[in-house]
Amino acid sequence: MQLIDGKAVASHFKAQIAEEVQQLKAQSGKTPHLVAILVGTNGASETYVAHKVKACAELGFESTLVRFDETVTEAELLDKVREINENPDMDGLIVQLPLPAHINPDAVMETIHPAKDVDGFHPINIGRMAKGLPAYISATPQGCLMLLEHYGIETAGKHCVVVGRSQIVGLPMSILMQRNTYPGNCTVTITHSKTKNLAEICRQADILVGALGRPEFITADMVKEGAVVLDVGLERVPDASKKSGFSLKGDVKFDEVAPKTSFITPVPGGVGQMTIISLMQNTLLAAKGSIY
Ligand code: GUN
């Protein structure tokens, strides 16, 4: 079993991105600028956005955090998105999910200009990705691909089982893994809450992606000997022994699954580290105008 060290891979890419940012600044005087909109005070979202803002500072990006109270109306939020779309100094825009129930996330995603949609959530970016055209690719699936590539893990002809069909991870991951490029060329099965014989299907996976958002759902009996396991889950589970009152768990029961695998990502320290890197890469592409 080899542990996929997301932190080490992330620091490799961080150095590379920071270097490219300096080059861009020297050549064109431009500093990549990421804007994050945060609605309300959800603890996990606060943490994720704080990590993104911190990464911007570390890598030489400019960042702006726009906060709204959770009572903000959809119209007010959309107005802010349109204002940022029009601002040529702002390269990338993300609206942290989840949003309060009275705001339609699809309306928000579709209002972000596709050229600034560094989360890759706009239907145009998802469609372009599916067609293999240049597009912003959703950060978490992109991070998974970067890990597979970094460790030189063979994917062609392998059976990849994706557990979870979320629009931001499961769905794009399944599309990416079937493309005819590396890492890809997999036979892909996407599973979800209505899937029958889930354990049996998971046991057929050469590459198993846990992206359903249920702590420690994937157990050893669901994993084939020698499989590659990517754990996208990141859930806060109450833990009285921790100062924070919670511990972070993935979708995979790591201790019992890890010995059966050839490669596995830990939580924390696995895929999550790469999500931020992908977002920074997308923002750099936006600043360079590389995609649109
Ligand atoms: N919520 C959970 N993951 C993400 C993400 O990658 N981007 C945004 N905007 N919200 C999220």
From TrEMBL:
GO biological process, one term: L-histidine biosynthetic process
Coiled-coil features, chain-numbered ranges: none
Keyword NADP: yes
Annotated catalysed reactions: (6R)-5,10-methenyltetrahydrofolate + H2O = (6R)-10-formyltetrahydrofolate + H(+); (6R)-5,10-methylene-5,6,7,8-tetrahydrofolate + NADP(+) = (6R)-5,10-methenyltetrahydrofolate + NADPH
Assembly, per entry: Homodimer.
Similarity-based family: Belongs to the tetrahydrofolate dehydrogenase/cyclohydrolase family.
Protein name from the UniProt record: Bifunctional protein FolD
Annotated organism of origin: Siphonobacter curvatus
Record lineage: Bacteria, Pseudomonadati, Bacteroidota, Cytophagia, Cytophagales
Gene designation per UniProt: folD
